[in-house]
Amino acid sequence: MSSHEGKGRPTPKRKEAESKRKVSSLAPIVTKDQKRASKAQAREDRLAQRAAYLRGEESALPLRDRGPARRFVRNYVDSRRSTGEYFLPTIFVVLVLTLIQSPVIQLGAIALMYAMLIVAIIDGILLSRKIRKAVLAQFPGTETKGLGMYAWLRSTQMRRLRAPHPQVKPGKK
Fold it and tell me: Within 10 A of 57 (CB to CB), how many other CB atoms are there?
């Protein structure tokens, strides 16, 4: 296009250009009531999805929690008590005890914390080994990579804070 040729149409007024930019003819016209209803529906959908996730429904679980092997691991971990699930409450008690102005109590509290940590780590290592063997026995040919860590992390959470919620009671298999 040379500098002498025109574009074949007049330059639009600023009002016209801005109105075209603001309201697209392709976008649906949405009222405040429609937006409010849409947000309410989205919120209900999220709540329903979260409830299904907490119940352990397979379709609502994220990929890291899906599959029969992961369900087996969750049930295995939830069926036993572990020192890891008491670690967080123990840390809280240690925090309170360290506020006491007695060096003996403070050192005892810190020693308790480290003892719990070491026991939780050893329990996690043993749990990881047991889980891999149990999964291979239950589901031959299943990839066990990551299942030990999955089990240990779940076992370190307090029972009522686990998600999805435990499906079995402690002591049941």
Answer: 12
